[in-house]
Amino acid sequence: MKRRLRLWRALRRARAAQKQAVPSSSARLITRALTANPGMDDRLVLLTGLAAVYEASGDLPLAIDTLATAADLALPDHRYAAPLLLNLSLAYDQAYAVTADRAFLDDAVSAARRARRAVGETHPARADVLNGVVAVLVEAEEVLDRPELLDEAVRAGTEVVAAGDGGRHNLAVAYRSRYERHGHLPDLHAALRHAEDALDRAGAEAETAAELGHILRLLYSVTGAEEDAARAVAACRAAVESTEPDDEEGVARRAILAGALLDAYQAGDQAALEEAVAYARAALTADRDERAFVAAQIAATVLTVWARRHRDIEVAHEAEAAATAAVRATVPDTADRAVALDTLATALYGRFQLTGDPQPLDEAIETGRNAQAIPTSATDHAGHLGNLGTSLFDRYTVTGDRSDLESAVELDRQAGALLDEAHPERGMYLNNLNVALRHRYEVTGAHADLEESIAIGRLATRDAPTPDRPLRLSNLGGSLFVRYERFGDLADLDEDVACQREAAELLPDGYPDAPSVLGNLGLALQSRYRRLGTEADLSEAAEALGDAVAADALPRDRTAIRSLYGQVLHSRWEAGGEEADLRGAIEQARLAVEATHADDPALPQRLGNLVTMLESAAGDSPAAAEEAVAAARRALAVLPDGHPDAPGLRSGLALALSARGDTGDAVREARAAVEETPPRHPDRAQFLINLAYVLRERRAETDDVIAALRQAALLDTAPPAVRLRAAQAWGGLAAERGSHADAARGLSLAVELLPEVSPRRLGRTDAQRWLAGFPGLGCAAAAACLASDEPERAVRSLELGRAVLLNRTLHTRGDTSPLRAVDGALADEFERLRDRLDALPEEEATPFSVGPASGAHGGDAHARMAAARRRERRSQLVERFADVVRRIERLPGFGGFLRPPAVDELLAEARTGPVVMVNVGDDRGDALLLTAAGLRHVPLSGLRAERLNEIAFEFHRDVAQAHDRSVGRAAREEAEGRLADVLDWLWTTIAAPVLAELDQAGYARSGRTIWWVPTGMLAFLPLHAATRRDGGDSLLEHAVSRYTPTVTSLHLARRTMAAGAEPRAGVIVSMGEDHADRSWAAAGVEATRFAERFGVLPLDAATVTRAEVTEAIRTCSDLHIALHARSDADDPSRSCLLLAGGEMAVPEIAAIRNERARLAYLSACETTLTTAALVDEGIHLTSAFQLTGFPQVVGTLWAVRGLVAAHAAERFYDELREAGGDAGRAVHETVRYLRDRYAGFPSAWAALHCVGA
């Protein structure tokens, strides 16, 4: 919410007439004598003087009667008529000032209009009369709220200026007043122009300088420019300095300067606030006269700001005293009294903000009601309504009284309606209305309120001045966040993050609402992290909330921020497992609860946060479980019946009860939570999962558990990650009990949801982390499908559930010529956005800070914001890319654009040889054979995931031992023997049954090619080298083996193979190092020989630039790389080639596009090795070169000694020539050669393999 700090808006001239004792009876005698005198000029002069005597004696009615008599005598065309009518108008104005009777102002306006009509173009006093008319009309409009009076004032003032008779000052006042009434910027610019002209002509004239300062302050309120605030200060300072010591306006001008300095402070000049306070206090202590109101009102405003900025309760009391003095200095029921009361209400509200004490808030509301009951101008009345609405809204947040919320909505609506659309203050009231409507939606669920809230919030932020923009953006974001929470549209959350981030960037130093803005940014980022798993969002959320906690927030804001910070720390604990984060989360949640008043509507939510965090500690702490149960019950006890937060709290209570061992009560509460939640509500899925959990803990019927999980998984309004976990658990439990069809349904759904939890907008690191959370999901789904006799569904599960990132990228890099033939412009746009996405650098998440950061605007805050903006580019590009894809899909014949191929399309890939998918499940192993004749299924009875995992781990341990020269020869030979045992196991368990089935399918063994799709840890083993230990059969004797991560990737690789491109070879080798292993040096020599064979100069990675290496990868059709490489066991995307200038990791290689690529030969260490958690994603150097565009990539499963690598490469290129460029067949023959040469040493001959088409 935003409260308006009302500053005195106009300098008024006060008339200080001395009272004299003139008997009214004598005056009447004089009047009768004068009216009988035939000399008209003398009579009029004497009547005017007599009126002055009456006014001085305090008898205004008689003065008015006398002036009215004189005016009647002078009409219609006497030269004194216009001045007399002006004096009559001024007398009526004085009568209003004394009595507050608006009828006198109506008479003043009537007399002023008559004066204007009476003054001719040649009248010697024309300029003075019209100037006086302008002053009367402007002052009267402020009370009468008749905007046409300002139009008349501008016309009258324009006539004076056009005649060259001065009047620029009053015309500036008229334009400025009309701007304040309507908010039309041309009026403000005209006011500025005339005030500057007036000052130029009059020199250092105090009154005009003061008016110019006023106008510049209004300009600052529009632009928010520090320069405009500084100019206003300069003008107001000039007014003060040019005021004579005995000038009665001096006090008011010093107070106005204090107000201008307050603006400068809000624009960023931190020192200005202290000077503003000094001037305000000086004005208060000066001799008082009728201008005490001006000084006291501005002083109260300035002191209120100081008190809030410095959390100084003593100054807050001083502000109240000044505001009370302002009230006493005004006449009841006047506009000045209304302004003074509003100022006092603001000071009282400020004390409530500092202390949280509801008493001053109640007083502020009562005082605000008194202020808004007094008729004033539209602008002032809007301010009084808006401030009262803010106080009522805050009382609602303290007490939960719905009537206060309803009143706040109505008052905010009225305030905005009073002002023209262009009025600069209207946005402030719209901002307040946005917040009030959002909170009413949260209570009632009325969707119209939420939609109006967002629409109003957008209007409030449009053209918002700089000082107000951060808060308005943050409040708009808050409404978008609420809509996201209700409907789950990620676009709303993204826009919320954008609003909050822009708001945080705009925060000036010392901004009083900075902690709240940073808190809202943290909330938005944490929510997006929970939705998408973007680690950078969680990191930035922790930093923002750490800054907010470290800032000096108001008590109520500090409590809310602590609660949010606890949530982020809890998320960080979930992500990283650091116990310090869990302890910190619980501590922050406890502090937030302790600081929350028992009647505060936010208490249940904060208790709910504490429950969540305590549940996480309940497994190791019975005391935490007890505390969680007590907190949840307390939260439910204070919620009104039917509150939308009740189901969530009840579900949390169920988990706490279960942790305590009260499983019966836990089930009852969990069921109630589900029953109380609307059927389509997104949170219902999580409540169903919680129900399933407590049922499982109670050893309930599995049918009930599965039913709850099934409902959760099928709720399409729930977040994809929640549905995926529910579907995975549903399928897993169904498989355990032997319900294979139900298991297949659940696990297949989980696989279909997998791409949704790792959308394209995620960076590689975040996507990998998400996918690593569901290892083996595709295999489990395929196993369930095969158990229920659904082999085609099993194929689909393996394709969708594995190599998600690889397939997604290969899809976008497919052939666009069919699209180009239909819509060339759309094809260009698709390729342009695709290439921009590919070119985005992968950014590592910022490390989490330990404890609060150095401050919201510390040295690295803007750098963090810049990094955040760079991350947002991916989201923006992805949304544009998705829009282009949707447009393409609407074209005839392109409905399946970028979608995975159907099973019949995958079967078509077997036209040049069978594709064998080997699935490894927990309880079964299977081979799915895609053949030209159809799909065939071969159960593999000896293949189980647990046993395979052990074999793969031991295999690579034995490879390391076989290469370890620090151990004895016998130990190395024993290791080689164990490797041969694994090759035998691969033959017996997989290769032999598959070959037998292919025999039955009519495939000749001689010369045939098999594309293998290994799953799980089978990808770590050399299936192509499967060989009987006794020297009998070997797969090498029966088929050429190639690998492909998925059938889809094979399908896409074949579609993108370069045809007819001019061959261009390239060799990249590292020759500049002093290698300890002379065999590696030999490999370098061999690579140089290949360069000579190809007729190219080798690139020495030890000396050339990174750009030259990149260019070679981008442009060479045939590429040979002989470099050191490193596989990262924790993050396979960090696997890299080692260059002199650093590392070239998987993402950088994969981002390179090569349109002519044919073959890449990677003579480097373990190029096809990945990590166990992401084995089915196929993230390694070999796949990186596939993504670059190479349809055939030769790599190794483990590091091979340099001499062996040199022999292998030499033989490969010989065989490649014989095979007509068929890399798979060349590798096959090379491995056979190496097997014969290094018989008995599988570590030397079995690593080389070919991946791709």
Question: Could you describe the 3D structure shown?
Answer:
- Residues 982-1252 form the CHAT domain.
- This is CHAT domain-containing protein.
- InterPro entries: CHAT_dom (IPR024983), TPR-like_helical_dom_sf (IPR011990).
- It comes from Actinoallomurus bryophytorum.
- This protein has 53 helices and 14 strands.
- The chain is mostly helical.
- Among the domains are: 17-166, Serine Threonine Protein Phosphatase 5, Tetratricopeptide repeat; 403-519, Serine Threonine Protein Phosphatase 5, Tetratricopeptide repeat (Alpha Horseshoe), CATH 1.25.40.10; 904-1052, Nucleotidyltransferase, domain 5, CATH 3.30.420; 1059-1201, Rossmann fold.
- Helix 18 runs parallel beside helix 20 and helix 28 (603-618) runs antiparallel to helix 29.
- The longest helix is centred in the C-terminal third of the chain and has 32 residues, at 969-1000.
- The radius of gyration is 41 Å and the shape is elongated.
- The relative contact order is 0.04.
- The model is unreliable at 6-38 and 842-860 (pLDDT under 50).
